[in-house]
Design a protein that fits this description.
427 residues, 8-stranded mixed sheet, 12 helices, 18 strands, binds (2R)-2,3-dihydroxypropyl phosphate, binds manganese (II) ion
């Protein structure tokens, strides 16, 4: 009931991190192109296989300062069974996915105060999601209406002929190629979410499409992972070239992130060979890093930013870049550019990492020595309580549909799902 939302509000407002004046409002009115790198883990960045870079294009964004990206190298995913859908939910609402199942599926009709709706109401943005899979996968065609997503481009908008399709759907190269004209048609400013698909388990490509030989661990999933990552890297490079040609690159905010791991713990043996060290529980948590990089037009890139950060932090960060104060909203993350950014990363199962130590399966580890901390300090134990409390509050919001009872500010208008229509919806 409404007393629960007050408890949540008190918590998120006490966690709030005020904007950094250097960044606040710098991207106001700019188009936003959010690029989802399917199953992409950060260990791929600058990794060399057979003496070759696996992802030379992404590496160039990270390493070449003149590209003006800021790369967060301690950024983690927080997804559970909802996988891609959890990453979508978390980046657009700053809520956690559920401990089991997918909130997109089971809480698709909830009230949300999501980024697409806020940007539309506050600054007239048009939002769109682009994805070469069926309309209703992960219940997207329903939940998107509750998030206030204006346009949804799914398989019927693309050329899904046999040579263009593999695994779950459209290959990333035709996906990006065919998306550029759709982007050019959108009303501006837009908030566009490009969701790739080819670098997805079981990581398969068609004959002749791999430009890198597989790894040689003997575990096919791990060995092919590098080849589809290279394919994704190539598709992204072409997309950037095409955006530049269309005049949509230089003056847009470009945000690139990985949604979740691609290699599960079932592949620890092969991964030990790849990483050159045993995959301990601590090492496994370190491998949950996914890339986050952002380019804001007119703002110098910082190179690599080491702040501990995660998917929940994306929405408050973006709000502040657009000059919208995050403090009115129920958000579990904090602005990554803020001086007051909260540097702890809860995972969905209650484990968490901080800069100095991690808590995994009830055991604390020193991140530097990798040793077990036999006697955790009070601060560590309190941090664990905070993490569990935070996750519990997020679950309360979803399970009780609590945003029904919350009014962020005078400007806010509740989203009416029946105002939204996508593609072949029945009118
Ligand atoms: C399906 C795609 C893959 O449309 O988003 O989802 P995942 O299996 O990663 O959740
Ligand atoms: Mn995914």
């Amino acid at each position: 009931d409404s007393s629960d939302i007050t408890e949540v509000e008190n918590y998120t407002k006490s966690k709030y991190a005020a904007p950094n004046a250097e960044f606040f409002g710098t991207g106001e009115g700019k188009n936003i192109i959010k690029i989802h790198l399917e199953s992409f883990q950060s260990f791929l960045i600058d990794y060399e296989l057979h003496g070759e870079e696996v992802t030379p294009f992404l590496n160039s964004l990270v390493n070449d300062q003149s590209q003006d990206y800021t790369y967060f190298d301690n950024f983690f995913h927080q997804t559970e069974q909802g996988k891609t859908a959890d990453a979508e939910l978390t980046t657009d609402t700053s809520l956690y996915g559920l401990p089991q199942g997918s909130a997109f599926v089971t809480k698709g009709d909830n009230t949300y105060q999501a980024l697409p709706a806020i940007l539309d109401q506050q600054q007239g943005y048009t939002s769109g999601v682009f994805h070469g899979d069926g309309k209703s996968f992960w219940n997207r065609d329903e939940v998107y209406k509750h998030l206030g997503i204006n346009e949804y481009y799914y398989d019927i908008f693309y050329d899904m002929s046999d040579e263009n399709v593999i695994n779950y759907g459209l290959k990333d190269k035709p996906f990006f190629e065919e998306s550029v004209p759709l982007l050019e048609e959108m009303d501006q400013p837009f908030y566009a979410h490009m969701m790739t698909l080819t670098h997805h388990h079981p990581f398969v490509l068609d004959e002749g499409e791999a430009s890198l030989p597989p790894a040689e661990t003997g575990d096919g999933t791990v060995d092919r992972y590098f080849q589809t990552a290279r394919y994704l890297d190539e598709s992204l490079e072409q997309f950037v070239t095409d955006l530049k040609e269309a005049g949509l690159y230089e003056d847009s905010i470009i945000m690139i992130y990985g949604d979740h791991y691609g290699i599960s713990q079932n592949h620890n043996k092969a991964m030990a060979e790849i990483m050159g060290e045993e995959i301990t529980p601590l090492k496994n948590s370190e491998l949950q890093r996914v890339p986050f990089m952002i380019r804001i037009p007119g703002v110098d890139g910082q190179g690599t930013n080491h702040a501990y950060s995660s998917l929940v932090d994306v929405m408050p960060t973006l709000l502040h870049i657009l000059g919208i104060d995050a403090k009115d909203y129920i958000l579990f993350g904090t602005d990554m550019f803020s001086e007051d950014h909260k540097e702890f990363v809860p995972f969905r199962n209650g484990d968490f990492v901080t800069e100095k130590y991690s808590s995994i399966n009830g055991i604390f580890y020193d991140n530097t020595t990798k040793e077990v901390i036999e006697e955790p300090t009070d601060e560590m134990l309190e941090m664990k309580e905070t993490v569990l409390h935070e996750l519990e509050l997020s679950d309360k919001v979803l399970n009780g549909d609590l945003l029904r009872f919350y009014t962020p500010n005078e400007d806010w208008e509740p989203v009416n799902a029946s105002d939204y229509f996508y593609g072949d919806d029945e009118l």
